[in-house]
Amino acid sequence: GEWKNLKLYECGSFRKGSGISSTDCRNTGKPCVKYGDIYKSFNTAFSQAVSCIAEEMFNCCLQVCRGTLLFTCSGEDPLEIGKCVVYLGKDPIAVGGDLIAMFPYDEANSLFLAYQQDSATLIKQKAVLSKGNSIVHIHLSEIQELKIQLPPTQEEQQAIVEILSVADQEIDLLEQELTEQEKKKKSLMQLLLTGIMRMRK
User: Fold this and answer.
1) What pLDDT does 84 receive?
2) Most exposed: 27, 34, 77, 173, by fewest CB within 10 Å?
3) pTM for this prediction
């Protein structure tokens, strides 16, 4: 069937997160996600938080479950504004301020939507809508109006997700291999440039 031309609000409901600052975070406690975590720690999907807050604060925050999409609504670069990741963890997680949560309807695959938000077309849409200079913003109402295309069946969406997930896994393996090769190079430099290892003619 033909792909549907939709606006994002037709695929789910939205809510804004509430303020969680770096000073609110601690080593242990209830899991939370801040907009800075999304920029620094996550790509497309995540299942474990890197930040925690006290239980009292957790109970006062917006909490989301598996399958929720999270958009950043503040940042420094128009081409990064509205960065989207999907939460795939088992337990509820608190959502901080400057984040927009989207709860997809049943006909939309949340991971498909997250991958789509990282496409050149959607990045450009969000960059055009963003406002500000040193600090860039995008509003919930603008995220809702993003134009997307959706395959008509969950099966087709899932098939696309599986192909992209395999590509992600291959990239992760290559990045790990690159890291290992860089470590080996540094060790070799240490040996060669300090005379511990000598070259023979």
Assistant:
1) 97
2) 27
3) 0.85
